[in-house]
Prior knowledge:
Elements: H1 2-18, E1 37-39, E2 42-47, H2 51-56, H3 60-74, E3 81-86, E4 92-97, H4 121-126, E5 127-130, E6 134-138, E7 146-150, H5 162-178, E8 187-189
Parallel strand pairs: 7-8
Antiparallel strand pairs: 1-2, 2-4, 3-4, 3-8, 5-6, 6-7
Helix pairs in contact: 3-5
Amino acid sequence: MTAKQDNFTDKFSYLSLKTQPGTETNSEINSILLTPYSFKCGYSFHCPWSFKQLIDRHLSQKYFYELLFVTEQKHKIYDFHMRLRSQGHYGLTVDFIFNNAEDQSGPVKSEVCNWCDMNNELSKLNLIKQNPTTCIWLDAQLRNKLIVTPRRHIERLSKMTEEEMTQFWKDTKIALDEEGCDWQNPLWIIF
């Protein structure tokens, strides 16, 4: 019964989101955009704007900060991966993956962060591009996705300053555009 109710809630919330105007230009984020939709490994948020539109409208920092607030402060989830998926003309889906983390494949566990230790052999092989705030990596297991990390080591994205977060999202978009990124493929943000 709970699964059916969750599916109904997800579909109803998604329908409500689709009827919201997508042309806001102020810095306020509509609360409907902060409603999570459950799935097997975590939950998702649906945004009517594309990643590029969030940045162009100067909403990326505010939107992602609000998602982090919902995730960390309201749901007390601190260990997660964030995945951005383009929905074409329907905007963007942001997934927070945290359930069954031990069952998910990922990089080899080590004492040093794979993405912070630039002397690490895996880091040397997988780094595609870096700019002042962002590093873009190939997936260590050659899956069809890119990994994006802040250039400096942080434990959680919410620990970035407002200016750092704004610049991080801008630099991410610039670096991916320069690399000819196919925005239809998933983009993973790893911390």
